[in-house]
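Give me structure tokens for this 122-residue protein.
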Amino acid sequence: MTKKLWTLTEAREVLPLVRDITREYYLRASVLADDVRNKLLPENVLEAKEEEIGEIVKHWTNEILAMQIDVKGLWLVDFDNGSGFYCWTWGEEDVLYEHGYHEGFRSRKLIEENKEEDDSDK
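Here you go.
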């Protein structure tokens, strides 16, 4: 299967689904993480909750990857655009950032206003 290359328009169109999927897993993991951080729990219960968090993250990762979107970190996804990545992380309202292939989250920059018109050439 060939790797999907995303236009900015396509990435923004699929984002509501990505956000809904991420919200579901984020909320489930957050409840467990809150228990782990703030409750005095027996060791076996603590370990079970930590394992469940790991399983939640693994299921989220697999769902996102199945959409041909790259997972780059916890609740952080990249859309390959052929010359780099459009980047989105949980809490952001839209796909607003991009970075090169050899750069990461720290190097991302705001997408230029005219990027969407440039994408239509692909």
